[in-house]
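Hi F.,

I've been meaning to write this up properly since the lab meeting, where we talked about keeping a consistent format for the predictions we share between groups. The idea is simple: the sequence comes first, exactly as it goes in, then the structure tokens exactly as they come out, then a line or two of notes. No screenshots and no reformatting. I'm using this chain as the first example so we have something concrete to point to.
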Amino acid sequence: MPNKKNPGKPEKLLWHQAFYDAIQLELFEYRNDLEYTFEHQLTSEPLRIDVLIVKKKKDVLIDKNIARIFRGHNIIEYKSPDDYFSVRDFLQVCAYANHYAANTPGVDYSDLSLTFVGARQPRVLLQYMAEKRKYTVERSAPGIYLITGDYLPIQILESPLLPKSENLWLQSLSKNLRVDAASAILEKSKNDKFRIYLSVYLHLIMGVNQRAFKEAIDMAKRFPTLEEVLDEVGLPNWVRQGREEGNVEGEVRAKEKIARNLLAEGMSVEQTARLAELPITQVRALKKSITG
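Output, unedited:
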């Protein structure tokens, strides 16, 4: 992305601010139980934790794949897609945890958890933990490495491997976003309850994935729903009446006509099958009959 103030220098991407939005979106249903601090300052000097999440009530269970290790105070360290976690990073965050527990009234070291979130697997760090620290390193779920053997629970999240169905916001912190993920983000972004968290997140994600979002927006404008597809090809009354009357044959004919129109527009067989709600083999046969 160009830097408007200095065109010769690339703009610094706000990955950490976008991550702050994303982690709140991931844990949205627990928004009343968690308190977030961005770049929590540990001392009067520049010594900060990327994100600090504090449970407002200690007995609240955060039943979310990325937060099952959470205790009362949870330190989150994030690396952008171009960066990775080193052994030094790990030791530094452990020092932050000790400093935070020692200098924050009412906080005990046993009430902390550490979470490291990045886009790349930190192989050297995992090896260090297993061989030097003698920790147990377990891949407890897709994209989640659970580290046991320390006084406090530790996890490493490899964001690209997190399931999109459960962790769309974190999994999408990427420069290589797929069109289906961009479409899912746009769809969820329509929900007013998410708006407060989306300004920086969307600015960044859409900026570094312009092509994916352009395709997603173009698809949404053309055929966002089957009903609008029907309106587009001029057959809404026929199909709706066929549905209401149980006219299966009429509905099938309508779907085939929709598919022919979509194929003529240049849409792929897979997209046509999904939008027209027809088997892909049937759509392939229709395409063959059109192209000869």
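Notes:
DSSP finds twelve helices and seven strands in the chain.
Residues 76 and 115 are 5 Å apart (CA to CA).

If this format works for you, I'll send the rest the same way.

G.
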